[in-house]
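call fold(seq) -> tokens
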Amino acid sequence: MLEAHVQQIENHAERRHVESILTTGLSKLKANASLDEVRELILSASSTDWRPNQRFRLEGIPSSEFATADYRLDYWVDDVLTVGQPAIIAGQSKSLKTSIAIDLGISIASGGKFLGEHRVLRPGTVGVISGESGEATLQNTAQRICTCKGLDLAELPIIWEFNIPQISSPEHVQELRRHIQRHKIEVLILDPAYLALLDEESAKHASNVFAMGAVLRQLSRLIADLGVTLVLVHHVTKGAARANTRLGEPPELEDMAMAGFAEFARQWFLIGRRKAYVDNSGHHELWFRWGGSAGHGGLSGLDIREGRKKDVGGRYWQVTVRDAAECFQELESKEEARSREKKEAKQEREIEEDIQKLETVFKKFPAGETVRELAAAAKLSNERARKALNAMEDDKQAERCEVTKANGQTYPGFKPLGHTPDAQAHTHAHSP
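ret:
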């Protein structure tokens, strides 16, 4: 009897809720509102929880149940991507974020290996929603990756979509829900994140963690309700991208652009350049860092070759996964070589400057002089003067000679090449 009474109350509440929506919509129409505005109002109101049993509740789990509950996570990709938790692929501009995301999607759809290295534990249906790359570019990328993996793209359970929804729009959220359910999508790749999450209003608050958190929660509720694993393709800040490329450092979670994304991600793939890209080379030397709140994570180097359009056979997709320690060692060797080159270049500049000073000094001592006297006259240390004089000797600008002092003693010295001093010119009042 009580349950029937509760159901009767709920039915009455639902009726009043629907009547309220329709009445408001009719009033809007009479006030010359557009059909789109009324449709938006109805969708927004209909998505609001009105039933008493759907209000926010705190139930609590006793430790006796919590201690024995099974919360183990399944993995799509072994030790790389868990099932059901939102993931973010983030990297600087033109660092192959989209291509790596497509490799992930194709690997899951085929049950193969992500980047040729990480084993897929359970195949699934993948949805790709792209609002930036365009159909032609994405088709070419997918075909090249499939060729590399020995797959036929036409046979893979991947749903492609090029209209990107606005998460701030209730109508778009409802359509995204229908799209996921209609195609039974299990892993959804959304590229790029900012086009889906930011409209004209929310873009003003992209640096506000609370404002962006509210937008991300809408998306989080949707994917949690549908049991979908979401993979957002995002970017890092320009400052972090420049610094990491200059130093060859792997990217960090904190490098993600806009507020709230690092906090939202339960797992992540971070892409950075180990070395600046040479235009039109088709060769990328990258860092690939992954991790998640479940405890998985790692760091590898990626050498990805795509070739060039003008190459015989056109562009392709070839990935080599490299040990991080080996990459660090290579970077250190390059850094040591750069430091050595800088040091040598500095020494060369110093020698050139010192030679100019000594050429001026030789005009005062055309018959030659000891290194110590030449150094003092040029205001150089004995060591720098000797290096410059040796260089002048190698370049046939100066030659060694004997310098006779007033005490009758002779000492080794240098003179301009080609000058033949007389006996008097060899005699100086200075001591060596």
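The chain has 13 helices and 16 strands.
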